[in-house]
Amino acid sequence: MSDFHALQVSAIEKLTPSSVAVSFDVPETLKDTFSFKAGQYITIKHQVNGQELRRAYSISCPPSSGRLTVGIKKMPGGTFSVYANEGLREGATLEVMPPEGRFIFVPDGNPKNVIAFAAGSGITPIMSIAQTVLESHPENIFVLIFGNQSATETMYLSEIQFLENKYTDRFFIQHVYSRAQEDNALFGRIERSTVNFIIKNKFKNIAFDAHYLCGPEPMINTVVDVLKENGVSEEKILFELFTSSDTEDDLAEDLEGKTQVEVIVDDETFSFTMDKKQLVLDAVLKEDIDAPYSCQGGVCSSCIARIKEGKAEMVKNQILTDGEVAEGLILTCQAHPLTSKLKIDYDDV
Fold this sequence. Notes:
about 350 residues, alpha/beta, six-stranded antiparallel beta sheet, 8 helices
């Protein structure tokens, strides 16, 4: 299931003082494997100081480009992000998992008006989505609200300016800077007043078919709340977290006993016993089972599995819909077993 492929880095472009765009050379034999939908991400596996790291990064180019490019911002205290910005070189080889993710835009041939709220590196999947929206229908409109510290720290600024020039009557950008005051930019952060200004004033005459949100959890929560207050239905709001707030695992404190676990992955079945206080994915990996995972924080969707027998409960869930949970899907990185037996299937998702 953790199907990694060795890809060579074909280009590294400096986007800002603290971020880069990394492109990969995908051989013809893997073109189908690495085809993607706008908004999806790849997981990169790399050894740093003898430790295996897995990190998920969104694809910034549109599917029509024939390229595979991700944006990586150097995070304070980060490991791989620091290496990607300071040590990674063209010609290097990285282990890469094929694209996945549910934060997507798929053209259906009908005109669409789309708005996106992004902050910092949250722009990465939005770039792919924006370009796909604009090129897929001559009447499509895309509005981007983009928060950063300043223009200098704005990832993909030149690409955004290119879209402004190419789609003058269909692409609209509202920059929001928290540490710089500039013409045509709002000062501050993307907050309640920002959202109300955008949808009730500046773009009040546009009826949006979809709202894409990507960035830190507090921003997303604020935007979601304001959109709903303004009558936007939940099915028209799509979001992806780049970072998630820490959640206390109060559930583990109340669990006692062991669970007999059966895991299906890549058509193989594995059995072991785990403590209910453990998270399912942690127990699976401890058994050296090659299950899919990436962030281990409930932010990506790599570790989804389906419950075939028994029950499990998630500490937090910001990805699966209520319907998917009712169908038995779980994020194994967030799930504790509740029953004496639990059977999960990573293949049936």
